[in-house]
């Protein structure tokens, strides 16, 4: 170990060759999970005193372990929110690994942080926040939401001064992502449930009515969703911003999935009001073509987040006195992979127009898919897609039918689609974020439901 020998050179070639072959597969097989017993039998004991050797371990990964993982970048991987990293982004992830950059501080990672911040600035500009807004790339939307909400409460604490409320509270809806409730639990805060409208949207009127009834004591944030995970619906951001302003509440926009569509000129107006957010998140690993895992977390006033999150200790003194932009200071983390770099590299290499085009393409496929679903007598499209998620009922199916169908699709390698629950009913949903997904791919899936 720790010496570059001829054997290391051979391993480097083997690994780069594998990565290149994997990227070239067209389409990559979907693959799928196997049981612990099957994997035990196929892989055997991989951790040994003397080691297997790099090439043997790589072969084991290629032949046994990788095929036991679903290829979320397959064009027919439509479950949850899949991934569709560009080749450039994926390749650059190898470089991030090869360079041992500590992405937590400016003093150690200045070049990487500079590049990440330019990528963040593109998102800030699309959202219409002031150029002084900024933040950090964190692991995922879950940590992004938690970090933003911790900053929000810190601000409320500072404003409240000597008279803290009995309970801290944030307002959200039933369509809000599960990670927001998880954040509230971690923070020992309560969630004020605001009813949604007929489309599953948070509106200013509902928020105002609920806060009128429940009061605003201890209310430190309102979470709006720009593209709900289940149905892709965008809350009424401008109306919500008005109510936040009336009550002095922090306005957080969770756009983990949907805010990527800010890059699409035809969609940008739908997010009107996001420019008034105190914080927002968007996951490049969802619909901005970056590999896992990557969430952009942005604050209108980064200084507020810095006050909430900066860790202090004698051994950190050189960082905290520097006055420089330390990514560690803006979320719940310290050591940090420069995980925004694959996104930055792809953006730098391809240019922002390529992003706009790729997102437009997925939106067009979603619209074509909606029309296809509407034409089929055995299917119901449960709502017109606002973004790129389609929620579909197969007439006459029970939950067990959806389960069996989903398992069949994956086992046959045709597609990865899973059931969901929408308004208490088991149905299915297709999430389209891959520019290589075609209307024919969607039709092939819909055919299997006949
Ligand atoms: C996916 C998602 C999250 C959570 O993001 P992770 O990256 O999975 O942690 C939060 N909010 C919304 C709206 C999401 O779609």
Descriptive account of the structure:
The protein has 450 residues and is of the alpha/beta class. The chain has 3 domains: 6-30 and 33-69, no CATH class; 94-350, Aspartate Aminotransferase, domain 2 (3-Layer(aba) Sandwich); 352-447, Aspartate Aminotransferase, domain 1 (Alpha-Beta Complex). It contains 16 helices and 11 strands. The chain has helices at residues 6-24, 36-43, 54-65, 87-98, 106-127, 141-160, 178-186, 204-214, 237-247, 284-287, 302-309, 317-320, 341-350, 352-375, 399-411, 439-447; strands spanning 134-138, 169-172, 190-193, 219-225, 250-254, 279-282, 295-299, 379-381, 389-394, 419-422, 425-431. The strands form 2 sheets. A 7-stranded mixed sheet has the order 1-7-6-5-4-2-3, with helices on both faces. A 4-stranded antiparallel sheet has the order 8-9-11-10. α8 (204-214) runs parallel beside α9. The mean pLDDT is 97. The structure holds pyridoxal-5'-phosphate (PLP). Pyridoxal-5'-phosphate (PLP) is lined by residues 81, 140-142, 145, 177, 179, 225, 229, 254, 256-257, 283, 295.
Annotate the secondary structure layout:
Elements: H1 6-24, H2 36-43, H3 54-65, H4 87-98, H5 106-127, E1 134-138, H6 141-160, E2 169-172, H7 178-186, E3 190-193, H8 204-214, E4 219-225, H9 237-247, E5 250-254, E6 279-282, H10 284-287, E7 295-299, H11 302-309, H12 317-320, H13 341-350, H14 352-375, E8 379-381, E9 389-394, H15 399-411, E10 419-422, E11 425-431, H16 439-447
Parallel strand pairs: 2-3, 2-4, 4-5, 5-6
Antiparallel strand pairs: 1-7, 6-7, 8-9, 9-11, 10-11
Helix pairs in contact: 1-3, 4-13, 5-13, 6-7, 6-11, 8-9, 14-16
Pyridoxal-5'-phosphate (PLP) is lined by residues 81, 140-142, 145, 177, 179, 225, 229, 254, 256-257, 283, 295.
């Amino acid at each position: 170990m720790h010496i570059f020998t001829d054997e290391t050179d051979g391993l480097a070639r083997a690994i780069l060759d594998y990565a290149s072959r994997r990227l070239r597969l067209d389409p990559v097989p979907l693959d799928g999970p196997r049981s612990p017993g099957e994997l035990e039998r196929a892989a055997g004991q991989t951790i040994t005193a003397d080691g297997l050797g790099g090439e043997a371990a790589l072969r084991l990964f290629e032949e046994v372990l990788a095929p036991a993982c679903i290829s979320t970048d397959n064009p027919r991987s439509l479950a949850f929110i899949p991934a569709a990293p560009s080749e450039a982004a994926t390749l650059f992830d190898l470089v991030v690994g090869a360079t041992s950059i500590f992405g937590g501080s400016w003093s150690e990672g200045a070049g990487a942080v500079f590049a990440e911040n330019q990528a963040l600035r593109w998102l800030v500009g699309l959202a219409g926040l002031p150029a002084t807004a900024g933040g950090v790339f964190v692991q995922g939307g879950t940590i992004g939401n938690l970090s933003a909400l911790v900053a929000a409460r810190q601000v409320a604490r500072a404003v409240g001064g000597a008279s803290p409320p009995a309970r801290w509270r944030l307002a959200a809806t039933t369509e809000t992502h599960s990670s927001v409730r998880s954040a509230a639990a971690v923070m020992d805060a309560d969630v004020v449930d605001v009813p949604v409208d007929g489309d599953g949207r948070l509106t200013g009127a509902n928020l105002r009515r609920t806060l009128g009834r429940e009061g605003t004591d201890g209310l430190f944030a309102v979470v709006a969703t720009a593209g709900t995970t289940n149905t892709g619906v965008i809350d009424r951001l401008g109306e919500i911003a008005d109510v936040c302003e009336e009550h002095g509440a922090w306005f957080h926009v969770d756009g983990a999935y949907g805010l990527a569509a800010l890059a699409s000129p035809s969609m940008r107006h739908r997010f009107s009001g996001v420019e008034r957010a105190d914080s927002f998140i968007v996951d490049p690993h969802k619909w901005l073509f970056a590999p896992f895992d990557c969430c952009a977390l942005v604050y209108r006033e980064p200084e507020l987040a810095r006050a909430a999150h900066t860790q202090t200790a004698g051994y950190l003194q050189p960082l905290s006195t520097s006055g420089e932009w330390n990514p560690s200071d803006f979320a719940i983390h310290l050591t940090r992979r420069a995980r925004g770099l694959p996104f930055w590299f792809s953006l730098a290499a391809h240019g922002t127009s390529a992003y706009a085009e790729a997102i437009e393409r997925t939106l067009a496929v979603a619209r074509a898919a909606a029309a296809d679903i509407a034409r089929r007598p055995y299917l119901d499209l449960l709502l017109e897609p606002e973004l790129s998620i389609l929620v579909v009922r197969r007439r006459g199916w029970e939950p067990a039918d959806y389960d069996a169908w989903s398992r069949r699709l994956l086992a046959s390698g045709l597609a990865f689609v899973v059931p969901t629950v929408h308004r208490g009913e088991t149905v299915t949903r297709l999430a389209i974020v891959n520019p290589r997904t075609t209307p024919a791919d969607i039709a092939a899936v819909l055919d299997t439901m006949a």
